[in-house]
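Structure ticket #2291
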Amino acid sequence: MRDNLGLILGALSVLVAFPILLWVTREPSPPEQKPKPGLHTTETAVQGNGLSVTLGWSANTEPGLAGYKIYYKTESETPPYDGKSLTEGDSPIVLPMEELENPKNPQFTLHGLKQAETYFFRVTAYDIRGKESGFSESVVFKSPSAN
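Resolution: structure written out below.
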């Protein structure tokens, strides 16, 4: 019994260490299903010569949370996430909690995505001491091509 308790406590500590759980969706889950936590795209729009995408994710509820960082890049899913040229800036884009419209349901819109390009996004949380969580799972966004 004591060995099992140690395994349970060890599993719980892993869950606390990586608070951002992920999934990818482009449409809402049916109402009877419990929504899954994680990073996802919620909408896209064409603006002039660029595109925008809105990312949403499950809120981190740990005390001392200061904000989130959005990492992005094109071409491959592997680190480093060193994307450049989005309107909001180079990767990572730092989002203090006070810049989020609804911190309990965080989302952020990125602008200036290029057409016919594949983008890879990951999110981390950081606390008031500057300590950063591990990466979320990657979300892939394939922007439409110009016609």
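Closing remark: The helical segments are 2-17.
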